């Protein structure tokens, strides 16, 4: 695990609660394959990486235990819990269904003002790709989806989606070969469906767009040797 100090911030520029910052940081380390199942998570390096004291680290790891990402070994500490290809796909499947429904609802009520914002995001996304700004690429992808979710006007469904999204990595996607190309092609298609008020099309496009992310992630984790070759494909 890298000991590099990186202060985690929410995308709106405000600090998250410290245990949430820790959980977000460790969750991404786990899902992106930077730490492996069975590996113990040392509190001090995590505290240094996030820029917090040891107490929020413990609280963040406890929350990850409730999500099934880590396990507590008595008198030894927290260890990364095993997870399978199907676990990864299940996370994306759930996100895809919720986001698809929100996209369908957005298609029936999106405003001209929000469409202009989505067009601006797409233009900025192209610029970020052209200069290879991976952090900006990821932030703009997040902003695009956020605008659609807000356009749906379904607060409780959006909260449910957010609870799933926080369990799925986002920023490292900009570094995964194929994902940026897919987003570059699919986001304009989504916007077109929204502009035309095509709810069924928007739902289908969104579900496919997100579900494909599972394959990208599974592929990259396989390349990193996360699962043994003897494990049957799930």
From TrEMBL:
- Indicate the segments annotated as coiled coil, or none if absent: none
**What keyword terms does UniProt attach to this protein?**
DNA-binding, Transcription, Transcription regulation
The UniProt entry, under Pfam families, shows: FCD, GntR
Q: What is this protein called?
A: GntR family transcriptional regulator
UniProt superkingdom: Bacteria
UniProt source species: Streptomyces viridiviolaceus
The UniProt entry, under InterPro entries, shows:
GntR_C, TF_FadR/GntR_C, Tscrpt_reg_HTH_GntR, WH-like_DNA-bd_sf, WH_DNA-bd_sf
Q: Where are the transmembrane segments?
A: none
Decide whether keyword Lyase is in the record: no
Q: Which residues form the HTH gntR-type domain?
A: 16-83
